[in-house]
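Final report, Chapter 2: Outcomes

The project's central promise was a pipeline that accepts a single protein chain and returns its three-dimensional structure in a standardized token representation, suitable for archiving and comparison. That pipeline is now operational. To close this chapter, we reproduce one record exactly as it appears in the project archive, with the input sequence first and the structure output second.
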Amino acid sequence: MNKFLLILSFILLTTLPSQAQQVRSLSEGNGQVTIVRFFPNPATTVINFEFQKGFEKGYVLQIYNFLGRKMYEQNNLNERTLVNLSDFTRGVYVYQLRDKTGRIVESGKFQVSK
């Protein structure tokens, strides 16, 4: 099982984009609406999440490690949210942005490299 996780982690790490910032968007009808931008990626000590101006209040940001353990959660988000990565180990993490009803409106992944 450990070998499987190691191989799977390696595959994900090598296929993860190494851009300094990522832009995720939510498709609404015919247009694209950008909700969140995060940087740097890969991150070492902190990662910044920036939401578009005038974004809907009430979103919840959740971050999970590769095994599905919730590592971080924040309600009442501001336009800029800074996440301290001191309790995060090296690896791939998944973020989920949820609305007031708990529905996932956006998700993505980022890498922590220490």
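Archive annotation: Strands lie at 22-28, 31-39, 46-51, 60-64, 70-74, 80-84, 91-98, 104-112.
This record, like all others produced under the grant, will remain available to the consortium after the project formally closes.
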